[in-house]
Amino acid sequence: MSMLKETLAAKIPAMREEIRTLIKKHGDKVISQVTVAQAYGGMRGIKCMVCDTSLVEPDKGLIIRGHPIIELTRRLPEEIFFLLCTGELPDDAALAALQKSLRDRAEVPSYVWDVLRDMPDDSHPMDMLDMAILALERESVFARRYREGMRKEEYWEPALEDSLRLIAKLPALAAGVYRIRFNKGELLAPKPDLDWAAGYATMLGVPDPDGEFADLMRLYLVLHCDHEGGNVSANTCHIVASSLADPFYAVSAGLSGLAGPLHGLANQECLRFVLSIKDKFGGVPSAEQLADHCKQRLAGGQVIPGYGHAVLRVTDPRFVAFHNFGSKVCADDPVFQIVDLCYKVVPEVLKAQGKAKNPYPNVDGGSGALLYHFGINEFSYYTVLSAVSRSLGMLSQLILNRAMGTPITRPKSVSTEWIKEAVTV
Ligand code: AMX
After folding, report:
1. Were both Cys, which of 32, 42, 177, 359 would link to 347 (CB 3.0–4.6 Å)?
2. How many angstroms does the Cα of residue 292 sit away from the middle of ligand 1?
3. Residue 246 annotated to the active site
4. In the predicted model, what is the mean pLDDT of the chain?
């Protein structure tokens, strides 16, 4: 197997000991408190779970194992997965070994294609990806080893094996969803010598004479890889896996959360907004026209898609990375030019309105325009691309949780009656 497994095996005993000691010495210290508003309000801001793979800082954005995401944009997603799992970037040999592990596990069983081809023609691409992952659950080594009887200390090993199996197959599955759902013709075979993201790019079948689309896929799959532990998809995956449901069940559940319009589905709205501006003005508007258009939209009670964030209070560095890419690759594309103009105009409009806590662009503010530039104009597919990437984060968190023996999640719920009594005493 890859050196990823050996690196983890070497680190896990010390990680377990560190946590054991921490709980023993400081287990009764208070790190957060819960207000009534938080209990009713999506548990926002309550510090009650641990995630060591990444951190979202309001003034800095996503930090992966101590590395700001903007410093990782030239890395491959495979390198990021190694980093998420171990806290270290792989050397050349470890990267090559991980890539070989993925290639060895990449083949998708034919019954999965039968499931996808049998689904109704108008199925959402996220339904199809989810179904494919659930169909694959029968391949789970974790489930088999658990049935056979396995020691708790060993859980992380089949969790890693299942994760590699799933990650290896995701590019073919996601590309297959695209080609089947949007009638793009036969499935395309993976080329064995390509990295994970470039393999996905070729299986999608997007013309890519200069390799720029493969570069975009590498960037896209790095930027969406993880976003702490409390977001809907990561948290859902975490809870489901805490029941010792295997990684296929857990990731499928997490991705069902990603399919929500307030989470992963937001990216398709952002591009719709940009294209509606192009239609309305017959191309790129002036700065004044765009500002007026945005003000009218706000006056009509609508948000500006791609702007604002629940946690961030600066321009999302992932937006900056996509913007830099677009400036290099498609600066003369009017759709990208509108994204660029929004970046200059919208923050001032939102600041003047004074409601949004963060008037700056988020990750979804520009990525759709880049996909559109390369001819992926099926908006409903965009969430699948983030799903492929986010699986890296969900699975790395899952492997670590099984290694640390994280118990089943079971917070205490209370009734409204209980709260009313509690606040009046
Ligand atoms: N345009 C207009 N108004 C906005 C706004 C925007 N982009 N962002 C926030 N506001 C408004 C809110 O609607 C809220 O108004 P209200 O008081 O009348 O309800 C007020 O500003 C305060 O909101 P907030 O605390 O700044 O944001 P939030 O944490 O409640 O919501 C988010 C965050 C992302 C849902 C919000 O900024 C938004 O709706 N943005 C536009 C949609 C979007 O880009 N979604 C993608 C998010 C990225 C992702 O996670 N995929």
Report:
1. 359
2. 19
3. no
4. 96
Q: Does the beta carbon of 355 lie inside 6 Å of ligand 1?
A: yes
Nearest to 362 by CA among 46, 78, 58: 58
Query: Tokens 């940009």 sit at which residue?
Result: 274
Instruction: Provide mean pLDDT across the span 89-96.
Output: 97
- Across residues 192-198, what is the average pLDDT? 93
Q: Is the dihedral of CA 371, 375, 377, 382 positive or negative?
A: negative
Which listed residue (130, 162, 340, 364) is catalytic? 364
- Helix, strand or coil, per DSSP, at residue 307: strand
Angle, nearest 10°, between helix axes 247-258 and 382-403? 140
How close is the Cα of 290 to the center of ligand 1, in Å?
Answer: 19
Q: Is the pLDDT of residue 1 over 60?
A: no
Cβ atoms within 10 Å of 117's Cβ, excluding its own: 10
Give pLDDT tens digits for 356-375.
999 999 999 999 999 999 99
Q: What is the SS3 assignment for 375?
A: coil
Closest CA to 80 of 186, 182, 189, 218: 218
Q: Helices (DSSP H) in 182-282: which residue ranges? A: 196-204, 212-223, 232-242, 247-258, 266-281
Which residues lie below 8 Å from residue 408, measured CB to CB, with a gap of 6+?
242, 243, 244
